[in-house]
Specification:
This protein has 336 residues and is an alpha/beta fold. It folds into 2 domains: 187 residues, no CATH class; 107 residues. The protein is built from 17 helices and 7 strands. The protein has a 5-stranded mixed β-sheet. Helix 4 runs antiparallel to helix 6, helix 10 crosses helix 12 and helix 10 packs antiparallel against helix 17. The relative contact order is 0.14.
């Protein structure tokens, strides 16, 4: 089963890359998917069932008054509507689902469950890819410093699901943009994947410290901070505890009292005072979605650049100190 699990992770990595890469090889991804489907372990041994009903429905009329971000999510939904038959569920999770976002900091987190029919032909897969390439650009209207766009999985993943993809609690507290609110998971053990994620993040900070490579732009600094905010969840997951990200810090502090969480508290203060100029929001989103992808993408890239290149508000010495402390925390977490 470990071999199949590795194949599943490899396919989902390939899917993520394909969905953001114009001109990628659709036939190769379909072949990889069909091979994965053939190799999926039979029966339910090694899994346990879990049914999730997404808590919130997207209500653009009510939410538009809360934040302009929800008007962007409405545009995103409308862009995807023509291919909704290939979307089992389109879920927004995280702070925009629970409405506890920080407007100057929060990006939009999604999980799109594609139907297996997407992989019936290259023509279908490319049509779906084209739609989501455009829809993904809308993430930058909400946060010009976002380090990801849309996230994907398949119906096949539901039948052999690792919570390292996304904890079930995030689905439960999510907001349904499109598709089915009810998801039936067969959850498998994913201890190997969870360990690999911690080791990958630890390696990231270790390399920065070894090279004296301290973030000099707002874009890179936000990426560092985003990685440290994931640590409480990862610590809990290493102990087999899966909670919503917003609850992870207090729970990790309670369970791991031997870990000095002061660097994460300081990072939280930086997050709450975060200030970013966003010139992307001056682009008319519905018009941009009507333009060819290359044109819309170039316009977004140009208007994002001032935000990406801006300097952190913190002194470089603070950035260096905190990066070293983040490295220490992740080194501890990655130590058996």
């Amino acid at each position: 089963m470990e071999e199949f699990n590795a194949m599943q992770v490899s396919f989902n990595t390939a899917l993520r890359i394909f969905m953001k890469s114009p001109g990628a090889d659709a036939a190769a991804l379909i072949e990889q998917f069909n091979h994965l489907k053939r190799m999926r372990p039979t029966g339910t041994h090694g899994t346990h069932p879990h049914i999730v009903t997404v808590a919130h429905r997207f209500d653009p009329a009510g939410l538009s008054a809360v934040s302009p971000a929800y008007r962007i999510l409405e545009v995103m939904r409308d862009v995807v509507l023509p291919i909704e038959r290939y979307v089992h569920s389109f879920i927004v999770h995280g702070s925009y689902a629970t409405q506890d976002f920080i407007s100057s900091w929060s990006d939009v987190d999604t999980m799109i469950v594609l139907t297996d029919d997407v992989f019936n032909s290259a023509e279908t897969l490319l049509r779906v890819q084209k739609t989501f390439l455009k829809a993904g650009l809308l993430c930058y209207w909400i946060d010009p410093l976002a380090h990801h766009q849309l996230s994907f999985m398949t119906e096949l993943d539901l039948t052999w699901y690792p919570q390292s993809f996304l904890p079930l609690s995030s689905f439960e507290q999510g907001m349904l943009l499109l598709g089915q609110p009810r998801l039936q998971f067969m959850v498998r053990d994913d201890a190997i994947e969870r360990k690999a994620i911690v080791e990958r993040f630890a390696g990231r900070f270790k390399r920065k410290v070894a090279a004296n490579d301290w973030s000099r732009t707002l874009y890179d600094w936000k990426n560092d901070l985003a990685h440290i905010f994931l640590l409480p969840s990862l610590l809990l997951q290493s102990a087999g505890i899966f909670v919503h990200k917003k609850d992870s810090f207090s729970e990790a502090e309670r369970r791991f009292s031997d870990i000095d969480m002061r660097p994460i508290r300081e990072a939280t203060r930086i997050m709450r005072a975060w200030d970013t100029s966003n010139f992307v929001r001056y682009l008319p989103p519905r018009l941009m979605m009507r333009l060819p992808y290359k044109v819309a993408s170039a316009a977004v890239r140009l208007t994002r650049e001032p935000s990406r290149a801006a300097l952190p508000a913190q002194d470089p010495s603070v950035v260096e100190r905190l990066t070293r402390e983040f490295n220490d925390l992740y080194t501890y977490a990655a130590t058996p």
